[in-house]
């Protein structure tokens, strides 16, 4: 089974990757490691308090089939996190798939992973002009760009980003992946019932809370 990791850093945008991570964990029951430069609590862009499950000192990018990088409204803390960049840099040249959305591709640029590769990003172009490690000639103004083992995307295309990563690992996303419209469903289709077996399991679990045998 593929091994997945998500990199965490201050103000990372969970919204941009939870479409992907929820499908991996809920639909396909994949375990995901959440890795940060240190073991301290972080705050996401949405204001959620999050704790990593591993640090960059405890993991190697090459140990994973895919490393997912969320965007962040302020990439500077991550960009100057030496441990995080080291973790990424050591994954350059391996078969690990790096999937970065929104501003996160700039981290891949600094780590050398985008060297010679086409990519896109959701950061302001002045940022690309500020840092000489960004290969501006390889910037492609498209929503999703895939080049070898690197997938990059702009934040507003989080569904398409999730699709690209899932398809990279041969997961079947279907043709209407998370794009269904409420008005296209009947009342019957929007009525959900457990199977008899699943309902019995629910009732057994319920006993743990009610104390009733």
CATH hierarchy: architecture: 3-Layer(aba) Sandwich
Order of helices and strands: EHEEEEEHHEHHEEHH
CATH level-4 homologous superfamily: Class I glutamine amidotransferase (GATase) domain
Which percent bin holds the helix content?
25-40%
Count of helices?
Answer: 7
Number of domains: 1
Per CATH, what is the topology?
Rossmann fold
Order of strands, widest sheet? 5-2-1-6-7-9-8
Quaternary status: single chain
- The residue ranges in which pLDDT falls below 50 over 5 or more consecutive positions are none
Q: What structural class results from the helix and strand content?
A: alpha/beta
Query: How would you state the average pLDDT, rounded?
Result: 95
What is the total tally of β strands?
9
Please identify the top-level CATH class: Alpha Beta
What percentage of the residues does DSSP assign to strands (E)? 15-25%
Main beta-sheet strand count, sense and barrel state: 7 strands, mixed
Form type: globular
Cα gyration radius (Å): 20 Å
């Amino acid at each position: 089974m593929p091994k997945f990791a998500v990199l965490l850093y201050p103000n990372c945008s969970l919204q941009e990757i939870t479409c992907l991570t929820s499908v991996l964990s809920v639909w396909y029951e994949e375990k995901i490691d959440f890795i940060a430069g240190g073991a301290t609590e972080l705050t996401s862009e949405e204001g959620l308090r999050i704790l990593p499950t591993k640090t960059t000192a405890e993991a190697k990018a090459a140990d994973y089939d895919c490393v997912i990088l969320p965007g962040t409204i302020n990439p500077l803390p991550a960009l100057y996190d030496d441990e995080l960049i080291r973790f990424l840099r050591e994954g350059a040249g391996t078969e690990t798939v790096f999937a970065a959305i929104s501003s996160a591709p700039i981290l891949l640029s600094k780590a050398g992973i985008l060297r010679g590769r086409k990519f896109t990003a959701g950061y302001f172009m002045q940022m690309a002009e500020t840092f000489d490690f960004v290969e501006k000639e390889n910037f492609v103004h498209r929503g999703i760009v895939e080049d070898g083992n690197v997938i990059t995307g702009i934040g507003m295309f989080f569904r398409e980003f999730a699709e690209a990563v899932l398809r990279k690992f041969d997961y079947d996303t279907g043709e209407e992946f998370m794009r269904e419209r409420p008005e296209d469903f009947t009342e019957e289709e929007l009525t959900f019932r457990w199977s008899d077996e699943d309902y019995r399991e629910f009732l057994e679990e319920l006993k743990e809370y009610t104390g009733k045998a």
